[in-house]
Amino acid sequence: MSSLQLVSTEKVIPSERADLIRDTLWSVFGRRGSQFVSTQWPAVANFEYGNIGDIRFCKLNGSGYGCELSSASGGDGCLEISIELGGTAQFTHAGRKLVQPPGQWTIFDTTRPSAILAPQGSETLILTLPREKLLGSRYHLDDLILHPFSKGYGIGRVVCDFVSSVISELPKLDSRTETDIADTVCHLLRLAIVEYFGDREGHSHREFLTERIKTYILSDLRNPELSIDRMATALRCTKRYLHKVFESEGVSLSAYIWQSRLDRCRDELLDARHEARSVTDIAFSWGFSSSAHFSTAFKQKFGIPPSNYRAEEQNEVVRSFTPVRNAHAIVPASRSVRHTTGSQD
After folding, report:
1. What is the pLDDT of residues 35-64, one digit of tens each?
2. What pTM value is reported for the model?
3. What is the pLDDT of residues 298-307, one digit of tens each?
4. Quick one: which of 14, 61, 151, 285 is 20 to 30 A from 123 by CA?
5. What are the structural domains of the chain?
6. Cα–Cα–Cα angle for 318, 323, 325, nearest 5°?
7. Burial of residue 90 (number of CB atoms within 10 Å: 0-12, 13-18, 19+)
């Protein structure tokens, strides 16, 4: 698992603190031009940060501070989840303002500038994640930006407690679980959003169950015995009802399972940390029980056999590699693929 990184100005001479804070903001949040403003000088700021799969997290506190974060450059950007752990922070974003007390969280769009003003004693946890991991078809981003979500009850509390526990245990966790943990965080956040808006709009049951189905699939994705029968029993629904609820996703349950497994295999084939593992080992670790079936399904989805895919991607990395000085990049969102594969009944 990725280790925690700590940057603190406490032992840095005052004349060098501003540059250190600015460089850390650029590195952690990937937004060049971001600035740190302190209400007390010399400023004291502490950044504790790292990655969990494709989620970047940062725990930020200081001696009374303000952060002006510029817009992310290029692409569709990411989303940031800000969880207030202590004190009260004030946010300005997309023409809106929010005073966030402890026990509350909200969402930012990194393609737009934002500002944080926090008094002494404030502690904020910020998650940065690919937007497609959080946004569903039902809710528009403008409905979520700077909306106050409570972590005091329901799934909102579960996800915040889960994230805090993961970060505190990060050095002890197995690196092979990163993808599972990151996906679980995203699914819990989606469930919390559905729960919150559904309670107020009165028609969330189907979407809430859809997210429960995805969460169940995610939790059992490595199990070769995963089936719709097992899912129906666990969720106390009939198979027919599960299929009906999932219709809005535009893909069958069976195809969704196989696509999810293929995506995880693809990610690990591209991950240098798994280069010593065989293609078959990776496939079997994600619920495939036949290397021939995996190779066929992988080629159907990505257009190339898995062994060739890994080799071509490695060669492409070598051909396109150019050293970049002072690069401050957030882990990019995964490429989306629209192909479907076989079925699992």
Report:
1. 777 666 667 888 999 888 889 999 988 877
2. 0.68
3. 999 999 999 8
4. 14
5. 1-203 (2.60.120.10), 223-320 (1.10.10.60)
6. 160
7. middle
